[in-house]
Amino acid sequence: ILRLLKLLRRFEKFLLLLKAFRLAFEALPVLLFTLALIVLVFSSLIYIAEPRTNIGSLPWAMWLTIVTVGTIGYGDVVPQTTAGTLIVSTLVIVSALYMSIPLGIVGSAFSHVWQNRHRFIL
Q1: What pTM does this model have?
Q2: Rounded to whole angstroms, what are the CA distances from 90 to 20, 86, 97?
């Protein structure tokens, strides 16, 4: 494994990709705060809208929200009411939009690194 890691030093394009990830890493705290806000708001809405027989506690609502935002969708907890279904449908759309944000940030950072690659590769 160490030999492979030493070999990666020879690939300039891979080093450019790592540089782009380092630049994009600065935006991580804002993304994590936004994710926490999305989870808390939608968990609260789901907990309020669903009957206690379906969503018994706020952690169960948070579980449903995290699984939905992560686009995993285990299916162990699903909304039963119309209001819950509308809230989760809105969450699916919001989470798809949220997941596109890091791609844009990394893409922009890679574009910046690629334009200045003559300075980064010596």
Answers
A1: 0.78
A2: 32, 6, 11
